[in-house]
Amino acid sequence: MKIIIEENYEKMSRVAANILLGKMYQNKRVNLAITAGSTPVKMYEYLVSDVKNKHYFDNVHYYNFDEIPFKQKKGYGVTMTNLNNLFFKPAEIPESHIHPLDENNYKNQDKRIEQDGGLDLILLGIGADGHYCGNLPGTTKI
């Protein structure tokens, strides 16, 4: 593991965007597992301008790996709604390149990713309370 420390949020966000871009600039299908939350907001702002209307990124496919459904609401949950608002819609990512995890496909998601060639990179954020992705403290009763 390589740990990179930057002086501020903007620089950290630019570095994170550059790391994703480094994976995306390949001459093969690239599968990225990404998440939402407050940590990557600025990174997605950078990525939107970096990838929008750049057809050499047509090889990139996106997967979410956690999802929190909205109560009493059908359709996308928290993660996919945020990814759509932060990145997919502003960057005009084709729907055919977005592979959401949801209540209908969660049992087959691992197999689908394996059939698609595996993941090339997973983007995780760490929340202010120490949670990461779907690991939300105090929400699960054992």
From TrEMBL:
Pfam families: Glucosamine_iso (PF01182)
Superkingdom classification of source: Bacteria
Membrane-spanning ranges: none
Gene Ontology process terms (BP): carbohydrate metabolic process; N-acetylglucosamine metabolic process
A GO term, aspect molecular function: glucosamine-6-phosphate deaminase activity
InterPro entries named in the record: Glc/Gal-6P_isomerase, GlcN6P_deaminase-like, Glucosamine6P_isomerase_CS, NagB/RpiA_transferase-like
Domain Glucosamine/galactosamine-6-phosphate isomerase positions: 17-140
Coiled-coil annotated spans: none
Protein name: Glucosamine/galactosamine-6-phosphate isomerase domain-containing protein
